[in-house]
Amino acid sequence: MNIKLAELEHRKGEALPFRLTLDAAELKHRHQEIRGTTPVDAEGEAVQLGNLYYVKGSMKADVDFVCARCLKPFTHHAAVHFSETFAPADDPIVGEEEDSEILPLEGDEIELTSLLQEDFLLAMPTFPLCEEDCKGLCPTCGVNRNEVACSCKNERIDPRLAGLADFFKDSK
């Protein structure tokens, strides 16, 4: 979906509402941790104030992941807010700062689909967890430690310090 700059100019500061749906298959293809997703519903508004164009709103979807610790599939309800500022490419404000958050406009339209896809994907976790305190799998027996407590000893001793462990056993 594109927003024509001429349409924003004719509205004279009044917000132009928009609503669109992002392609779920494209998002899944572009993020390695996403196993599936419902279509991403985006809604927001665009407005021109002075020489700047503002686009803001939110996106919602249910995203399927596999927990990085326990490998259990889970669904995360994602609500992503976005806010972007644009200025004409020849405007001096665009080149003032190297890390400026003002994006240059090329042409006479704001292309929303790729911008919103990028915002949505950047908000997705790179290390998805089913729960913040997920205990994961036991490295010895492989049981899910969230469901069953195992009696495995997972003590790792640095081989360079193994002699010290024997030293303390003798002193008891």
How far apart are the first and last residues' alpha carbons, in Å?
Answer: 74 Å
> What value does the average pLDDT take?
85
What kind of sheet is the major sheet? 6 strands, mixed
From the spread of the alpha carbons, the general shape counts as: elongated
- Low-pLDDT segments: none
What radius of gyration results from the CA coordinates? 25 Å
Tell me briefly what this model is.
The protein has 172 residues and is an alpha+beta fold. It has helices spanning 5-11, 24-30, 92-95, 112-123, 162-170, and strands at 2-4, 16-22, 36-37, 40-49, 52-66, 73-88, 102-105, 109-111. 23% of the residues lie in helices and 35% in strands.
Give structural notes.
This protein is an alpha+beta fold and 172 residues long. 23% of the residues lie in helices and 35% in strands. The strands form 2 sheets. Strands 2, 3, 4, 5, 6 and 7 form a 6-stranded mixed sheet that branches. Strands 1-8 form a two-stranded antiparallel sheet. A hairpin with a 6-residue loop joins β5 and β6. It starts with a strand and ends with a helix. 14% of the residues are buried.
